[in-house]
Amino acid sequence: MAAARPGSPAPRRLPPSTLLLLAAVLLAASPPARALRFDLESGHTKCISDEIKVDSMAVGKYSVVAPDPSYPDAQLPESHRVSLRVTSPYGNSMHYSENVQSGHFAFTAVEAGDYLACFWAPDHKPPVTVTFEFDWKSGVTAKDWSNVAKKGKVDVNDGTRAEEARGYHQIYSRGNVLST
After folding, report:
1. Which of 67, 84, 136, 156 is least surrounded by Cβ atoms within 10 Å, i.e. has the fewest?
2. What architecture is domain 38-150+172-178?
């Protein structure tokens, strides 16, 4: 680094509050996260959990993706369907849908803790792989999803930007079909 010339002003540094404000603006201007895409082999289960606070709104949408990317709008084969159950930390069912190609859910958390969304696909011979997209938001991020939740009185927890930015904290697969 070159030395300052005599008589020239010292280099200016931005105060920490300005740097923090600049970081917040950049974070707010960043594009929103897109849906997660998963592959699910027929006869298997894939579960995703999300920690949700009491009285926080949670919304989700899911859809099976066409097996041939060249024809995304083509009718899906009968083998490309999934079932979904969303359960609370104490095992209460928040959403259940069976043998569908797409769907959505919305609920207000009545228990604090890890909510579990488990997808499974019927067993097929020969096995098929079903690709699906899943977007699950809770807390502050759920405010973007007013078209999913029914119009009316909905209480959404106001939280920090850090809570909004957190993602799914656990994703795992199991080789067994979830019994209903």
Report:
1. 67
2. Sandwich (2.60)
What average pLDDT does the segment 93-110 reach? 95
Residue 161's region, left for phi above 0, alpha for psi from -120 to 50, else beta, is alpha
Q: In what order do the strands lie in the sheet with 57-64?
A: 36-41, 129-138, 57-64, 102-108
Looking at the whole model, is its pTM more than 0.70? no
In which residue are the tokens 């709104």 written? 57
Q: Please state, in angstroms and as integers, the Cα–Cα distance from residue 52 to each residue in 14, 57, 60, 97, 111, following that order.
A: 37, 9, 13, 21, 8
pLDDT of residue 9: 65
Enumerate the domain spans of the chain.
38-150+172-178
Residues 6+ apart with CB under 8 A from 43: 121, 122, 123, 124, 127, 177
- Cα distance between residue 13 and residue 27, in whole Å: 22
Q: CA–CA separation, 86 vs 73, rounded Å?
A: 28
Whether 47 and 118 have beta carbons less than 8 Å apart is answered as yes
The answer to which of 38-47, 69-78, 100-109 has the lowest mean pLDDT is: 69-78
For residue 53, the tally of other CB atoms under 10 A from its CB is 15
**Least confident interval from 30-34, 124-128, 132-136, 176-180:** 176-180
